[in-house]
Design goal:
The chain has about 325 residues and is of the alpha/beta class. It has one domain: TIM Barrel. Helix 1 crosses helix 9. The structure holds S-adenosylmethionine (SAM) and iron/sulfur cluster (SF4). S-adenosylmethionine (SAM) binds next to strand 3 and strand 5. The site of iron/sulfur cluster has 13 residues, from loops.
Amino acid sequence: MKLIDRYGRKINYLRLSVTDRCNMRCQYCMPAHGVDKITHDDVLSYEDLYRISKAAVAIGIEKIRVTGGEPLVRKGIVPFLERLSSISGLKQLVLTTNGLMLDEMALDLKNAGVKHLNVSLDSLNAKTFAEITRGANLFKVLAGLAAAERVGLPIKINVVTMRGVNDHEIEQFAELTRDKSLAVRFIEYMPSLKKPGWQKLSVSGNEVLERLGQKYSLEAVDRQELAGPACEYRIPGAKGTIGVITPMTGHFCSSCNRIRVTSTGQARSCLFSDMGMNLKSVLASEDPLALQGALRHVVELKPDMHGVSADRDNHDAFAMSNIGG
Ligand code: SAM
Ligand code: SF4
C-alpha cells in the first residue's frame, strides 16, 4: 500500500521517539538547564508505541527509526525493538543513538533486528566533544562504535557542523571513510532552540562539499532505496561515504517522506510545524482502524515545505530531544 500526501510525496518513513530523557546535554539540542522532564504517566507505553507502529506499517510505512532523547536509556528497549522488527511489512528498523551505551548494547541491538545505526558524533577531540555535549566522554562513544563494528552493525555517523566549534574537523571526519565502510554525514545546524546569533554557527552543506572538494575529487554515490535525505559522495577508492544533510539550505522538503511520533503520542507532520495530532485519545479506542485513520490525517496535514531559513526562524523554540530530531 502506498501512502501519498497532498503534494504527491510518498510517505514511507516514521521517526518514533521512545523517550525525551537523555544521558547527554548537547548544546544545540537542549538548554543548559535541561528540559522539563515528561512525567512517567505521559510517556506512551511500549504497547501503545507498538500499536502506532503497526498501524503505520499497515498504511504504507516501510521504515521506522527509533529515536529520542536517547533511546537506549529507556528500560526494556531491546525487547521492544525485537517486537517492532517482527512487524510484517516493515522493511527496515533503524535506530539513532548518541553511542554512549553502545559498547554494552550493540550485540543485543543487532540480535533484535536493528538493520543499522546512526550515531551522533560531533567531534573527534575529547575536549571539544565534552564541550558540545556538556560533559560526555568521547572514548565511551568510540568504544561503542568499535562494538557496533565488531558485531557487524552498519554505522552512519551524524556530525552537526558548527562554525568555530567543529568545522575544522570536517577533513578528519572525511578521512574516517577511507578504511572503514562508514557513512559520515554532515548535518546543517538547525535553530530549534532559537538561540540569539545562531546564524554564526551555520555551515551550509555546499560549503562542506566545497571545502572537501579542495582536497578530494568526490564521486557522487547513487541513492539507495529507503535512503534518508543525505546527498552522498565517496573519496575515490574509499570504503565509506560522505554525505551532507541540508535541512536549512537544501529544501529537501520536496522529497520529504517522513512523519514523526513523540514519546507522548504527538504525531507531527513536519519537524518545524506542530501541525499534527495527539494520538492518546485515539489509542483509547480499541479500533485499530482509528489509529490508521489518525496517521493518514497527519500525512494529509504535511505542509509543502517548512519556512525556516537563515533569515527566518518564526517557529516556536523546541528541544530536539522532545521530538527526536
Ligand atoms: N540522542 C540520539 C542522538 O543524539 O543521536 C537521538 C536523538 S537526537 C535529538 C537526533 C538527532 O538530532 C541527532 O543526530 C542530533 O545531532 C540531531 N540534532 C539535535 N539538535 C539539532 C540541531 N539543532 N541541529 C541539527 N541537528 C540536531
Ligand atoms: Fe541527547 Fe541526542 Fe539531544 Fe544530544 S542530540 S542531548 S544525545 S537527544
